Amino acid sequence: MIRADIRSKSFGPLQVLKNIRFEVKQGECLAILGPSGVGKSTLLRLVAGIDKGFEGSIQRPERIAFVFQEPTLLPWRSAIDNLLLVHEGLSREAAQAMLVRTGIADKADVYPGQMSLGQQRRLALARAFVGQPELLILDEPFVSLDDTTADQMLDLTADLLRDVRPAALLVTHDKREADRLATRMLQLSGKPASLGPVPQTFSGGRAYQSGRK
Amino acid sequence: MQSQSARFLSLFCLIGLWIAASAARGDPSVLPSPVNLLEPFWRELTQGPLLYHLGRTTGRVVLSFLLAMAAGTALGLVMGTRPALDKWFDPWLVVFLNLPALVLIVLCYLWIGLNETAAIAAVVLNKIPNVAALVREGARALSPDLKAMATVYRMRPSTYLRHVVLPQMGPVLTGAARSGIAVIWKIVLVVEFLGRSNGIGFQIHLYFQLFDVPMVLVYSFSFIALMLLVEALMLQPAERRATAWRRA
Fold first, then answer.
1. Among A46, A150, B131, B224, which is least packed by CB within 10 angstroms?
2. Structurally, how many domains does chain A consist of?
3. Could you give the number of structural domains in chain B?
4. Residues on chain B touching A87 (C-beta within 8 angstroms)
5. d(CA B12, CA B2)
6. Which superkingdom heads the taxonomic lineage of this protein's source (chain B) (predicted)?
7. B155 at the A interface (CB within 8 A)?
8. pLDDT given at position B108
């Protein structure tokens, strides 16, 4: 369970977030939609505890996982080491099993730089779920993927969410991604940005506009 | 392979030039040819004190190198990641970077005395600013994304340092090590020249007073050869290992 009450977040004199309150329970996935630059990633960094400079409070669990826009892997370590180093105490068998689950079992011993972007994103997903997170944060995790690969990733993520049942927070500007994964949706908009219901007319997404199913 | 051949050819050309210059000078006591150095080298190696002095200098180089790398790396990392401390220490760094090595050596001997501590301190103080400046630039370029990842997944500081920071710093550290060892042994020679009673620098001082050019060259080239071996057998393989993932 996560409970956020962000009264204000500013960068210098510029206030970017204002009066943001939400809760996400275990097994729920809250999608936050909004156009680029509105402050979605800033909000996630606050929730994850990466950025601590804000007014308000956030209650978050101990085990957190984050799937970044870029895979953010250790390029000098093999795929399986990317899981083992981040999750201390994780067994090699459990790590290998997660690589099997995410469809990159044959890439265990290769460096991320030798993998395609789709495979790197699968590895980032494996790294997030293998720790059995209580809170999972997804920051546009399917951006820059072709439609077919993005669809496969959406299915995989939906399966893993169903099994692990973390409280999940998905940021996207693609309403179709939100439709597939989220149990609830809110829209981040305005200056400074605050949360509100998603309007029926929302269609901010690249994939949505390209008609991906 | 072609690159290796080119290196050997280049080296042979340098030796050829040396032989030609020596022949043109026609006085082995001023500029002996490489062949003239073989006999005194062998004599010093088998019957003389070459190995003893080589050992003393090597010991000083290794100790100074380790201390300078450790302190310079720590200082550089702190300055590169903590802007407030960087502002504070930056003027110190500029002063020490521009302080001539000879001044530091003389001051250390004057303040601490003509002993081993002063010798090592002089070398280390000369090298720390260079290592710190290089490492600081590397630390400034550390990936903020990987830092965020490590924060979210609560990586232990030791794990973060070993598996996230040091691999990013690998090229900087090997560069600092390679340039460091080259500079340190030259400073060690000056330190020995000025204030020690053993080591290659001391022997060079001795034979300088005797105007014995061949022996100066014998001792100098013995240490150069040792440093080339360290470079080829330790530093280059370490650099190759650190950057193996880039070539994969």
1. B224
2. 2
3. 1
4. 153
5. 15
6. Bacteria
7. yes
8. 92
Interchain CB contact of A16 with B (< 8 Å): no
Q: Between β-strands A14-24 and A2-11, what pairing exists: parallel, antiparallel or unpaired? A: antiparallel
- The answer to whether B153 contacts A64, with C-beta atoms less than 8 Å apart, is yes
Q: Are residues A144 and A201 in the same domain?
A: yes
CB A205 within 8 A of CB A177: yes
Chain B: give the shortest CA distance to residue A28, in Å. 20
B248 lies in a domain?
no
Confidence (pLDDT) at A202: 52
pLDDT, residue A209, reads 33
Whether residues A44 and A146 share a domain: the answer is yes
Q: What is the ipTM of this complex?
A: 0.86
pLDDT given for residue A205 in this prediction = 40
- Residue A128's pLDDT is 96
Whichever domain contains B171, its CATH number is 1.10.3720.10
How far is A63 from chain B, CA to nearest CA, in Å?
Answer: 8
Question: Between A117-130 and A92-101, two packed helices, what is the crossing angle to 10 degrees?
Answer: 130
Residue B151: what pLDDT?
93
Q: What is the pLDDT of residue B212?
A: 92
Tell me: do A205 and A138 sit in the same domain: yes
Alpha carbon of A77: minimum distance to chain B alpha carbons (Å): 8
Contacting residues of A for B239, CB less than 8 Å apart? none
**Considering the domain boundaries, does residue A70 fall inside one?**
no
Q: Does the beta-carbon distance from B155 to A85 stay under 8 Å?
A: yes
> Consecutive 10-residue runs of chain A (213 residues): their mean pLDDT?
90 90 92 86 92 91 92 94 93 95 93 93 95 94 84 92 94 85 87 75 42 36
What pLDDT is attached to residue B28? 83
Domain that holds residue B87: 38-241
Q: Give me the average pLDDT of each 10-residue run along chain B (248 residues).
A: 75 90 87 90 93 94 93 93 91 91 91 90 92 92 93 92 90 85 87 90 94 93 88 82 77
* Cβ contact A33:A185 at 8 Å: yes
List own/partner pairs for A157-160 with CB under 8 A and 24 or more apart. Answer: A157/A125, A157/A181, A160/A101, A160/A125, A160/A129
Q: Which residues of B touch A110 (CB under 8 A)?
A: 248
Contact status of A76 with chain B (Cβ, < 8 Å):
yes
Residue A158 counted as domain residue:
yes
Burial (CB count <10 Å: 0-12, 13-18, 19+), residue B35: exposed
Task: Name every chain A residue with its beta carbon within 8 A of the beta carbon of B167.
Answer: 74, 76-77
Residue A124 lies in a domain: yes
Nearest-by-Cβ selection for B163 from A50, A74, A114: A74
Query: What does DSSP assign to residue A106?
Result: G
